[in-house]
Amino acid sequence: MTLHIPRRLLDDIAAHASETYPEECCGFLVGSTGDDCTVQRVIRAKNVAPEPRTTRYTIDPLDIIVAEKKASTGGKVILGYYHSHPDHPCVPSEFDRSHAWPSYSYFIMRVFLGEPADFRSWRLTEEGVRFIQEDVQVE
Question: Which element (helix H / strand E) includes 139?
Fold first, then answer.
């Protein structure tokens, strides 16, 4: 599966990651599914994780409900979530794996010294054992 994302939305995620540095940012990837997933909107969320937010993110469950309603109003769905890894590789941590759900994309933006540096997207296997990197097509 390939995650398609317009450059302007990638830039929005990068800006969010820079603004929240050195803490992790987080948000929603909204769009449509088919053979591939196409991101048509990103929705920022507030990181409500207890300290340290430099290495953890948590999205308030009420924010998830609101984002689902916003997405469905436009006939879209939540494709997944994005977050940043300040000064760490864009590889999911064990914390990320233990809090992830299969069939969602988990987009990670690496931020190095406050500047977006790299990104990757991942999907959790159905068994929930490990992540598999998914292709990202920037359009």
Answer: none
What value does the CA radius of gyration of the chain take, rounded to a whole number of Å? 14
Spatial distance between the Cα atoms of 43 and 49, rounded to a whole number of angstroms: 18
Confidence (pTM):
0.96
**Smallest Cα–Cα separation from 4: which of 88, 79, 68, 75?**
79
Residues 13-52: tens digit of each pLDDT: 999 999 999 999 999 999 998 888 999 999 999 999 998 9
Tokens of 74: 């436009």
Closest residue by Cα to residue 47 from 58, 63, 31, 35: 58
CATH number 3.30.200.100 given to 2-138: no
